[in-house]
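Proteins fold reproducibly. Look at a sample protein:
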Amino acid sequence: MQKFTRSVAAGAILAAAFGLGLMLPASADEAKDCTAGIALLKAEAAKSPPKATLDKINKALKGAERELGEKEYDECLDFVNDGKKAVKS
């Protein structure tokens, strides 16, 4: 029974390590996408859009930059997407 328990524990550790390994590249991609999205929003804000659109872009930009600083890349991308929607409208 003890041998079986060790095998299960070893398998669980390997599965966890493998799972973390798969998650790291996604996080790096999200960080890159977040940074690129922030640059895009800054470029759109520099084009002097209408005030209502600019306000939405600036709000999204502020949130995205905050989340980038907190390394919450998925939330950063949510703000970037909000900013992109404002540009399209």
